[in-house]
Design a protein that fits this description.
The protein is α+β, with helices and mostly antiparallel strands. The longest helix has 13 residues. The radius of gyration is 22 Å and the shape is globular. The two termini are about 35 Å apart.
Length: about 400
Amino acid sequence: MANGYRPEIIQRAFVDFIGSRLHPFWSLTTPKLRLIARYTLSDDLIALRFESNRAFKQQISEVMGGWQGGQYLDLRVCIDGVYHQRSYSIVGLAHQPLWWLDDITESHTADQRHTVTIAIKPQGLVSNYLTKQMPLASVVNTSLPLGHFTLEQTSILRHEISDNKQLTPLLFIAGGSGITPMLGLITQALSNGHQVTLLHYSRTVLSKLQHQWQQLKDAYPDFIYHLIHTEDPTTYLAGTRYLSAESLLSLNLPLADTQIFACGSPALLAGLYNAAAEITFPTNKQLRDNIIVENFGNALADVDNNSNQTFDKTIPVEEHTVYLRSRQRQFVSDTTILAAADNADIRLAHGCRQGICQLCRCNKVSGVVKNVQTGKVSGDGYESVQTCINIAMTDVVLDI
């Protein structure tokens, strides 16, 4: 009886194997990128431009229809015979030219509809290799765009102001290289008609990046940016070096109805949540409910005492059982799910253990978890979670 199955006469994997020997960039199934240009975004931020292969173009078109601002790629890079995987933010949007490209940069690029740009802060083995050593025309394997730090994740897309429906004001807060996912997010938000405000805290001079933001300001009058050099008091908001309730209030935004995106160090995110706790509204609404974060570094690590910005490490947690549905295994957890699995000699997929690389992300079937970095509590149904930064608040079932 015919069942619709049609076996491949020639396996695609075999064709890929032969094709990769003829040309490393060619593949029917594996998304790949080829380095075509490097250029400077700021004093400590380098952009890398890649041409995408046919598999990348087809899969992103068929599966995703492009990518969203704020998403990232997992690159698989071979250094001295050892493969390393790292995540890097995508700059800009699919099928749109980068608004800050100059004529010199543009002359070195391929068709912009088929290129991908990422931004990297040169630090660490892989980042230094990509920004300083990897030859032009080198090929790397890549994932498709990943991540949930996007406009689609906003909890308040529209609200009413003075009985008139308006797009939600958006506030972007970045620290150091946390600016990288903002480059695409802000472009997308302005294109959609949002009022956008940017706070960027940095220890380095931002003259080049400031020129680029000014170009965007000239094109979109509703865009306001504040570049805060932490060593220059003349750039401070409300006279404070670090993010505070006073600096947020000085922006004169309707904070109760403003969606906040934040990306940066644990100190920056701690300062944001502390500031949010100090700001009260007439209703029962809390400002922290409007915050969506990405972070660099371990949010549970100690913070410089001079900054007065710390996370509360004393989160009371009762013991709960975590079930791994596919493995038919279970273990007791009173810490992060990943750490509890380690304690039970159960190996779960992981990478950085800091909530950055996303390699530990899996699907939760049921149960409630709490993000130890943001304090947000999940629903009790099916959703994607990171085991390295979530603790079980009830018995939890994972699709592992």
